[in-house]
Amino acid sequence: MMSPLQLSVYWRLSLVFIFSSFLFFLDIFTAAIIAATCHQGNGTGSVHTWHGAFEINQSELMESSQVNADWWTESGNPDSVCGWADWLSFGQTLFMVGLLLGSLIGGAISDRYGKRPVLLVCVCMHAICGIVPAILPQPILFLVIRCLTGVCSCCISICSFSLAVEWTPPAARLWPPAFLPFCFSLGTIAGAPLAWLSPSWRQLHLSLGLPQLICLPLYLAIPESPRWLLLKRRMDVLECYQNNSPADKQCLDLVLDSAWSDLQKASQVPKEPPSKGHASTDLMHLKHPTVLLRLFIMSYLSAVTALTYFGICMNIGSFGVGVYSAQFFSGLSEAPCLLVPLVNLGRRPISVLALFLSGSACFLSLLLSRFNCKAELVMSLALLGKLCILAANFISVLYSIELFPTVVRQRCVSFVNLCFRIGCLVNSLVPPTSNGTISLAAMVAYSSGPIVGCWLCLLLPETSGVSLPDTVEDCDRQPKPGLPNISAFWRKQKPVSRKTEGLHAEKDAGPI
């Protein structure tokens, strides 16, 4: 049974993730609405966007213009959204830039000021970013808002994963990285019908921004990370949490068990001035062949994961299916990732399997699209590839922590996360074809990248049930990589309690 404070953390963070997905895919919905309502060009009624092609005739345009007057302007009013529709194509790129900036500053800010205040500020700014374009529809302001939304989304992800992991006992720390993305998928499912019911620019932003704005008072009850309070010597707040209920006291005793021992050890060690050779020693560890090989493989997998996942997500309207229904099923296809913690597989077997299935599904989707097969079948295969690459990303979060030694772990994991954000940014710069579909080169990259990563995973050792390495020598003593045994896919792993598992996962936990 979960304690009241645990429940308070989980259900409130689930709302945060559900609403944050609304603005995450806003560019897809704005592209669809512009294609359906804006009169463009010579009046032929054919409008192409960077997310897909939508064919509409002149009568549909005139009918739509009568319903949504704020979109239609025959006088060429520059304040109209249709007057600066070309600017919107940069919104997705600036959103990815914001995610990159958030990954660079979010962890440091939350470590200094606490997860709760940073989360509250970012959630409030995120909600305001959804409302402002409805009130002030200006091109430059909209692009700045999209970049700021990306920063807030990344910081929300960092702080939410941190709070969820640190309020979870060590034996169940696999669940928060699966539960929060599941809530994000629920938000993707709910956002599609909301956008479908919002036929204008103003209605779209109000329907996607107001729910989070209304729920802002609920987030004030989110408690602070107990480990952060302990490290900052905020004993008064911890005592208040412990006196809340016997269940909360028992929960805090579990989650703070390892933190108490770490703090006591740190207090017993006399402080010494940092040696001049400390930086050079860390550099030597980073130059070790084992560390370099693992850093290269995990960085490649991180970039490929971002490229494939967001390549499919942000181009979901390019498969010939209605963009709203496609977005609905896109979120639905991610729901099975909640079952990943129940699978008794090691890190390497499930990574190899997920990457291979993802690349194969994307390749079949590309192949069938060239033979003009049904759009539903092509999209289903692409969504299967997205589901598998999401599962691979979920495993790689813990895999990265377990592969690198403690002396350089945070630096290596931060670099792997940076490669993920760079992959997101590169994907937003990939141009579509002239008819709005995904280009052949991009789809080949989405399919071949995971398959190459599948073979690279064979060079990594299995780390499930193995103690975290503290030095490079510990990495060398880990089980040597070999060809995967087919029995590993149904052999059960013995549960091993590791106090340190998941303590660093909150800073680098995944696609959102």
Write the layout of secondary structure elements.
Layout: H1 4-24, H2 26-37, E1 46-49, E2 52-55, H3 58-67, H4 91-113, H5 115-135, H6 139-166, H7 176-196, H8 201-214, H9 226-231, H10 235-242, H11 246-255, H12 257-268, H13 278-286, H14 289-313, H15 323-332, H16 347-370, H17 375-403, H18 409-428, H19 440-457, H20 472-476
Antiparallel strand pairs: 1-2
Describe this protein with a few key phrases:
mainly alpha, two-stranded antiparallel ribbon, 2 strands, disordered C terminus
What report would you give on this structure?
- 64% of the residues lie in helices and 2% in strands.
- It has 512 residues and is mostly helical.
- Strands 1-2 form a two-stranded antiparallel sheet.
- The longest helix has 29 residues.
- It is globular and about 60 Å long.
- The two termini are 29 Å apart.
Question: Overall pLDDT, averaged?
Answer: 75
Biggest sheet strand order reads 1-2
What percent strand? under 5%
Helical content, roughly?
55-70%
Give the N-terminus to C-terminus distance in angstroms. 29 Å
| Secondary structure category | mainly alpha
What's the overall geometry? Answer: globular
Q: How do the helices and strands follow one another from N- to C-terminus?
A: HHEEHHHHHHHHHHHHHHHHHH
Biggest sheet overview: 2 strands, antiparallel
Stretches where pLDDT is under 50 for at least 5 consecutive residues are 41-79, 265-279, 486-512
Per DSSP E runs of 2 or more residues, the count of β-strands stands at 2
| Total DSSP helices | 20
Radius of gyration: 24 Å
